[in-house]
Amino acid sequence: GIQVEQSPPDLILQEGANSTLRCNFSDSVNNLQWFHQNPWGQLINLFYIPSGTKQNGRLSATTVATERYSLLYISSSQTTDSGVYFCAVEGSGGSYIPTFGRGTSLIVHP
Amino acid sequence: SAVISQKPSRDICQRGTSLTIQCQVDSQVTMMFWYRQQPGQSLTLIATANQGSEATYESGFVIDKFPISRPNLTFSTLTVSNMSPEDSSIYLCSVGGQGGNTIYFGEGSWLTVV
Fold first, then answer.
1. pLDDT of residue B2
2. How far is the alpha carbon of A10 from chain B, nearest alpha carbon, in Å?
3. Can you give the residue ranges of every domain in chain B?
4. Span A23-31, mean pLDDT?
5. Among residues of chain A, what percentage have pLDDT more than 90?
6. Alpha-carbon gap, residue B99 to B81, rounded angstroms
7. pLDDT, tens only, A47-82
8. Per-residue pLDDT tens for B11-45?
9. In this structure, which CATH number among 2.60.40.10, 3.30.70.270, 3.30.565.10, 1.20.1730.10 belongs to the domain A4-109?
10. Distance, CA of B76 to CA of B81 (rounded, Å)
11. Rounded Cα distance, A72 and A21, in Å
């Protein structure tokens, strides 16, 4: 099946700093999403982005499908950005089962 | 979009007991997915639940341990049977995906087995 690798595994920032999270995948995809899991365990959908670029406030994401990677940018980070960021992909092979990366754990200090 | 209500949100369970988690979706969906997330780990798919048929379990998960019901197109339950401390996890239900649709999750059920 499709492989998903996220980097870095851990990230510690001071409030106000910018960061880039990366998701590499091993095959072509129908679906790629970024999620934020808050400290209470809730998974929040950030972006549905199988290709192209999207922005939502301080967050933006870019997927380059031909090169099999996606980037999540966080600008002017805040303590509420803390949590784990997951990338999930659905391969185009027709299995319809999303595969999750191991996540990037982000801590933003005040 | 889809709104998914999941309960309980949190529970502490005694070893050897069973607990049923409920998942209610605000629209009709063909497939519902159940995931387990052990502490500090990523999400692992337990099974896919289709209405009117037996759930399809992933490798390492069996129906006797994780029986699933799917009585209609908006509701599903997952039971964690004969629990042990190793079952302490967040359990999440999900809809969507399936070839290009946005994936949505319930709020999660955080189970601690003592």
1. 86
2. 12
3. 25-100
4. 92
5. 82
6. 32
7. 999 999 999 999 999 999 999 999 999 999 999 999
8. 999 999 999 999 999 999 988 999 999 999 999 99
9. 2.60.40.10
10. 16
11. 5
Best residue in B104, B105, B112 for a mutation probing chain A (most A CBs within 10 Å): B105
Locus of tokens 């339950």: B77
**Which chain A residues contact residue B104 at CB under 8 A?**
45
Question: Which residue carries 């009709």 as its tokens?
Answer: B28
CA distance linking residue B114 with residue B85, whole number of Å: 6
Percent of chain A with pLDDT over 70: 98
> How high is the pLDDT of residue B52?
80
Domain assignments of chain A as residue spans, ordered by start: 4-109
CATH class of B25-100: mainly beta
Residue A6 CA to residue A71 CA, distance in Å, equals: 10
The residues, ordered by sequence, that sit 6+ positions from A73 with a Cβ below 8 Å of its Cβ are: A18, A19, A20, A21, A59, A60, A61, A62
- The residues that bridge with A19 in the sheet, in sequence order, are A74
